[in-house]
Amino acid sequence: MVTELSRQLGKSISADIDVTDITEILRRARRWQRENTGDAERQRQVRALVDRVQRLQRVGPWACANPRISQEEIAEHLKRIRNDYCRGGLRDTMNRFVPQPAGPRCAHIRVPEALGLHEHTGSIDDAVADLHRRMQDTVTNIVAELAANGGFIFYPNPFYRH
Description:
By secondary structure, this protein is mainly α. Helix content is 58%, strand content 4%. The chain is built from six helices and two strands. The protein has a two-stranded antiparallel sheet. 6% of the residues are buried. The model has no long low-confidence stretch (mean pLDDT 81).
């Protein structure tokens, strides 16, 4: 769909455009808008096509990559859609700037085993690597514990293409 719209955009700004790179077409369309300010109706059509292509580009291939989608990913999609399409009043403006949680939050905090530098005999790089390993092990254990208890909520991805 983005490819077809960019093709239409290319034809609307130049009859002989042969560029297939969407970024280049968008750049040429912006230049065309700056240089051709006389035709208001055509300006409006080109601007609408540019906006539509840019909004569709923001969806990206990551949106339809997995058959399941998490609560956080749904919130990201909703925020993007709200930012792209809801531009009416004060409430829409506030929604763009005020973070909104995807749902109830619960922090799972663990502290890795302490690393006493006064007892550590290796180099500082070894101490940092050991601390990194301990922290990563703690995070991995939290994720495994949550997965075992059914802590992750997934929904079918409506953007997924088989």
